[in-house]
Amino acid sequence: MATHTPQTAARPWTAQDIPDQTGRTAVVTGGNSGIGLATAQALAGAGAHVVLAVRDPRRGEAAARRVHGSVEVRRLDLADLSSVRAFAAAWHGGLDLLINNAGVMNIPEARTKDGFEMQFGTNHLGHFTLTNLLLPHLTDRVVTVSSSAHRMPGSPRIHFDDLDLAGAYRPMTAYSQSKLANLLFTLELQRRLTAEGSPVRALAAHPGWAATNLQGHDASLLRRLALRAGNRFLAQDEAAGALPTLYAAVQDLPGASYTGPDGAFEMRGAPTLVGRSRAASDPVTARRLWTVSEELTGVTFPRLAVAAGA
């Protein structure tokens, strides 16, 4: 069974509440470190076969040795759509769970191999492409990791007139845009799955403030120092940061749900359903983003009924 009866208020939900995952297969992007590795460890520990989809197979193999259970490593570079296509083309058989976890945060201006702004290209377009290509294999759900940064001050939005922020690049603006895109992607993906009559569900999660390597690449030295202090004194550890992802992955939640910590400002705590910004709830913007993403990647939503009957 992939679901579990929600915990009562008397006891917070933990990884020990993950139901038996024996016989199930999960892909975790960026599964070699941080909350991705913690997610993989928890799923494998519950009996799932976990595929670590990583940019550097050598680091992936080192991480796999820290996973107790059935695990394998496959190369996936989300900043290179040819790598995404190769990963998907090599997939055979069913896939129960896709965890779109990998990401980059607040980095200096850079471009993907295909010429997209790195944060939008990796965090959104790479996962958009991967998900659509793997959908014919999926049987249960897609969980995409977003961030509370989707509602940062300044009213984050999708810059349809300049998605790459050319000439106006700011690391936090680009990151917020990419995390807003993750939520809009989840919203529109669920709409399409429902219209198709698919049992697959699309959900999103955010970890709160988790102490990982993600913050160590910030373009600002002052922010890196502040984040380092925050990681030490305020943040949850990686295992706690992975709980909202795991909760979204195994709980019986409605499609398009968004999960995160239940503590103050959603920075830490037990996983629960959380709210999102008005911008992240706009179906018109979600559809527009989907159309633009199809144009940029050349990948479209698959005909699932045809694929299932083939």
From TrEMBL:
Domain named Ketoreductase: residues: 24-212
PANTHER family according to UniProt: NAD(P)-BINDING ROSSMANN-FOLD SUPERFAMILY PROTEIN, RETINOL DEHYDROGENASE
Chain spans, region Disordered: 1-22
Protein family according to the UniProt entry: Belongs to the short-chain dehydrogenases/reductases (SDR) family.
Name by which UniProt lists this protein: SDR family NAD(P)-dependent oxidoreductase
Swiss-Prot/TrEMBL keywords: Oxidoreductase
InterPro entries membership: KR_dom, NAD(P)-bd_dom_sf, SDR_fam
Source organism, top-level taxon: Bacteria
